[in-house]
Amino acid sequence: MLLVAGYLGSTLAMQRTRTATARRRVLSLIGYAIVAALVFDVIIGPILGAYPDVGANFWPLWGEFALMCLAVALFAATLQSLVGPIGTLLTVVVMVFFGNPSTGGVNGTAYLPPFWQAIGPVLPPWNGTTLVRNTLYFDGNHITQPLVVLSIYAVVGAALVTVLTYGRLLWWRGAKPRRSPISPEEEGGIATIPPA
What we know:
Elements: H1 2-17, H2 25-47, H3 54-83, H4 86-99, H5 114-119, H6 124-137, H7 144-165, H8 184-191
Helix pairs in contact: 1-2, 1-3, 1-4, 2-3, 3-4, 3-6, 3-7, 6-7
């Protein structure tokens, strides 16, 4: 659900602002990921009791859920910045069609074919599943790799979305930085001049 929440948040933000990037996009996605993770953690933990030892695991899982949601949201925002709305479809393909099968589900990755075993460790779904499972059932052992991979997705995504905001890397799409040659006051004055 956090994967869906991640790319859905980025897609809704793109539809709301009509652009895939905006000056405060990264900050809004960080806030969104924190709130979405809290909602999921409250529902899954205290309300449903779906994971063991809710009192001890609530706070670590909130941070982990936020990191997973943010990694996917920024991945989606980056693809949307590069290729437009089709970036949402690419995110779904990468995260759902390639990411989910590579987690191994209930059987584990040892039983997966070699292709899925190879791509799993570089995608957020596998790392998110491993991070939560190891936190809940193995006292947080062996969570360094998932934390590093998810953090790389978040940091690189944030950097790319920030850089793409200024339009410098979109030369192949013909996009130019939006700079008005006149001030907003002059625009208002020009708009009030009646046509001749």
